[in-house]
Description:
The chain is α/β, with parallel strands linked by helices. Helix content is about 50%, strand content about 15%. It is globular, with a radius of gyration of 24 Å.
Amino acid sequence: MNKLSGLLLAAILVMTGSVSVASAAQSPITLRFAADEPTGSVEDQGNLAFIKEVEERSNGRIKVEYFPGAQLGSDKQCLPSLLAGALDISFIAAGNLAEFTPAMNFTDLPGIVNSPEQLRRVWQSPVRDMVAKKIYADLKLRPIMFDVAGGAARAIFYNGKPIVRPEDARNFKFRTTGSPIEVALFQSWGAAPTPMAYSELYSSLSQKVVDGIYVHPIGAYDQKLTEVVKNATIINLSYISQVKLISEAAVAKLGGVDSDLYKIVLEAGRNAELLKDKLYAERVKSVYDELAKVGVKVIQPQGDDLKAWQDKAQALWPSIVNDPKYSIDPEVLKIVEEIRNK
């Protein structure tokens, strides 16, 4: 009788264990995704499309928990959580990534590309894999999206006298990212670069801790910086690349780099990039009217004035590309220049 009872108990344990295993196998893999742009923005729309594609194509095997609007902090604040596996997907701008790896330093070279379309072609070229390998070697994180943030070149948004030529920026205090190239660019104008977290920017502008920021027009408008700055000078020198990274722990949850689930995430990331490009291109058409409506004076240097900005930028190149501390990969630079000159 005791033997029969033991067999029955063993059978029950096996059955309940099987049920538990089956339930676990059917449970979705949850990926925690942190982003910075506010809800409703182009960035947010693209991220939601990415999430929808991942969840649908995986037949529900992947579930994405999404935290937009910098709910979990700035890009540099989120990076330690990503490295620790507490976050699965997070964002970081190329300028801030420079503090952890030089993989994307080349994107901060002023004049490296002439349009957002050229920058997209860079991220569709062999440069994509070259940068991805360097990021993985340095951080053990894998890129799944390279975004051309804002769909337009960065402009100088600021308070104070109008800035038309580089020398007009002398003694202005500008918030910068952690990019040493961006810092060098502002110093070449005679301005005072002030690295700080983006989350501190609004209050710093309103309290006159800094005079301005170097940001694309859509970002300035969507982040409501136009409430605390009144001028914008369009110089068409620099474009922002932002990368979405996935942790090694998340890749393992998905089954590794060769798994179907990871490939779905990669493909959805590429599709989201192109959707954002399209949405940004449409939005850029109206952003200057939106700036005017909220009282921002837009200054667009022409002729010799515009050339003065370009000349200052080009004068920086030799000291940057030949200096080991910037770690600009010559093979990457060669490919990018070929794309720009086509």
